[in-house]
Task: inverse folding
C-alpha cells in the first residue's frame, strides 16, 4: 500500500535563489539609499561590471536590466535581420527576442549528448536570408564553439551566444563570455549568479560594447544628445547590490552544486532508463542544472516520475517543455518544424530538472533518489502484474 504522506513536509524548489550574504546586500543597499543614487549607471553597477569582466577575463561587461533585454540589445547591435538560426531546445526568451525585433527565428536541431546546437543541422538551415546564428550554452554546457565559429566564418554570418546558463563556465580553458561577437548573461534570481533581475552583454569588441551602452540608455550621449535608437536596459543599484553580495559566494556555491550533482549521479546510476546528463570534465561547470533523462527503456514515464516527485513535495520541472517550436506563435507559423528536429522532439519528452543549490542537501538527495527508485520499481511491478509476496 502506498504511503500518502509526502517525503518532504516543505517543498523543495528548482531554482530557489542562492543568497551568499544578505548582510552585505543590506549594507550595499543602505549605501545606495544614503547616496540617493538608485539607477543610471551608478557606482554599484560599475563595480559589478568590473568584477564580472575580471572574473570572465573579458574586455567589456555592460550590465542590463535582465537577460531578455540583453538579448534584444545584442541582436540589435549585431545588426541581425532576415533569418537567424537558433535552437528550439532553449528557454522561450532566446527565440522571442529575435521575433520581437522582427527577425525570423529558424530552428536547428541539437546534439543529444550536449543539448546544444548541432553544427550540421545549422548548416542545413542556412538560406540567402540568414544573417546570423544565436547559439545557446544550454544547462551551462558549452555550445560547439569551434565548429560554430567555422560555419559563421565560411558563410559570413554573425555569431552571438545566449550564455544565460553559463556564468562561471568554460569551453576547455577559455571562459564563456569570450566567444562570438558577444555573449549575453542572465542574473535572474533563479540563476547561478543572482542579481534579483539582471543580465549583461559581454564582449571583447570595443565598438559592440560602446553601441550596447548607448542602446541600454535610450541612445543618450550626455544629458540631452541622442545619437542612436535605444531602449531602457539599465540595471538598478539594488540589483547590482545583490550581485555584488553574491559574488563572494560563487566558489562555495559551485562546491555545493558539485556535491549535489555527484550525489544524484551516484544515486541514479543503476536505475533502469534513468541517467543524469553528464558534465564533460574538459570544461569548467557551475553545476547549476541537474538534468535527469527518462530514456525510452525506463519502465516509468517521465510524467509519472514528475508526478511522484511533486506528490512528495519535490518540485522538479519539465524544463523547456514543450520545445519552442511547439509554442505560439512558432507552432502556428510552422506546424511542421518538428520534422527537422528529431533530437529536440525526443529529448524534450525526457527531461526532468531536479532541485540543487543551497535549497537541498546530500541527505535530501538520497530521499529524492529513493522516490525515483520506488517509482521505477512500482512501474516494473505494475507491468509484470506485481511481484509483491510472490
Ligand atoms: C536560456 C535563457 N535565455 C534567456 C533567458 C532570459 O533571462 P532573463 O530571465 O534574465 O530575462 C533565460 C532565463 O530565464 C534563459 O534560461
Result:
Amino acid at each position: 500500500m502506498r504511503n500518502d504522506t509526502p517525503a518532504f513536509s516543505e517543498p523543495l524548489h528548482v531554482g530557489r535563489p542562492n543568497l551568499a550574504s544578505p548582510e552585505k546586500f543590506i549594507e550595499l543597499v543602505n549605501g545606495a539609499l544614503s547616496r540617493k543614487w538608485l539607477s543610471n549607471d551608478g557606482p554599484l553597477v560599475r563595480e559589478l561590471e568590473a568584477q564580472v569582466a575580471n572574473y570572465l577575463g573579458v574586455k567589456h561587461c555592460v550590465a542590463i536590466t535582465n537577460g531578455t533585454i540583453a538579448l534584444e540589445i545584442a541582436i540589435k547591435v549585431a545588426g541581425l535581420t532576415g533569418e537567424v538560426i537558433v535552437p528550439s531546445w532553449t528557454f522561450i526568451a532566446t527565440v522571442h527576442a529575435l521575433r520581437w525585433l522582427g527577425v525570423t527565428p529558424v530552428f536547428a536541431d541539437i546534439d543529444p549528448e550536449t543539448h546544444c546546437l548541432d553544427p550540421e543541422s545549422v548548416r542545413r538551415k542556412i538560406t540567402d536570408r540568414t544573417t546570423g546564428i544565436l547559439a545557446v550554452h544550454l544547462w551551462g554546457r558549452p555550445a560547439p564553439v569551434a565548429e560554430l565559429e567555422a560555419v559563421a566564418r565560411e558563410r559570413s554570418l554573425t555569431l552571438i551566444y545566449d550564455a544565460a546558463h553559463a556564468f562561471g563556465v568554460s569551453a576547455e580553458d577559455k571562459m564563456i563570455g569570450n566567444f562570438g561577437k558577444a555573449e549575453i548573461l542572465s542574473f535572474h534570481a533563479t540563476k547561478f549568479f543572482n542579481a534579483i533581475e539582471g543580465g549583461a552583454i559581454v564582449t571583447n569588441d570595443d565598438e559592440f560594447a560602446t553601441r550596447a551602452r548607448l542602446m541600454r540608455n535610450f541612445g543618450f550621449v550626455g544629458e540631452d544628445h541622442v545619437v542612436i535608437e535605444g531602449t531602457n536596459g539599465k540595471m538598478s543599484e539594488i540589483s547590482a547590490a545583490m550581485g555584488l553580495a553574491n559574488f563572494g559566494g560563487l566558489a562555495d556555491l559551485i562546491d555545493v552544486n558539485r556535491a549535489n550533482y555527484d550525489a544524484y549521479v551516484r544515486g541514479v546510476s543503476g536505475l533502469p532508463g534513468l541517467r543524469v546528463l553528464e558534465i564533460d570534465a574538459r570544461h569548467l561547470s557551475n553545476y547549476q542544472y541537474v538534468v535527469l533523462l527518462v530514456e525510452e527503456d525506463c519502465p516509468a514515464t517521465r510524467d509519472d516520475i514528475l508526478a511522484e516527485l511533486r506528490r512528495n513535495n519535490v518540485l522538479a520541472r519539465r524544463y523547456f517543455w514543450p520545445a519552442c517550436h511547439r509554442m505560439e506563435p512558432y507552432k502556428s507559423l510552422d506546424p511542421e518544424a518538428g520534422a527537422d528536429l528529431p533530437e529536440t522532439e525526443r529529448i524534450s519528452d525526457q527531461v526532468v530538472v531536479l532541485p540543487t543549490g543551497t535549497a537541498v542537501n546530500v541527505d535530501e538527495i538520497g530521499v529524492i533518489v529513493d522516490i525515483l527508485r520506488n517509482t521505477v520499481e512500482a512501474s516494473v511491478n505494475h507491468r509484470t502484474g506485481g511481484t509483491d509476496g510472490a
Observations:
- Residues 106 and 184 are 20 Å apart (CA to CA).
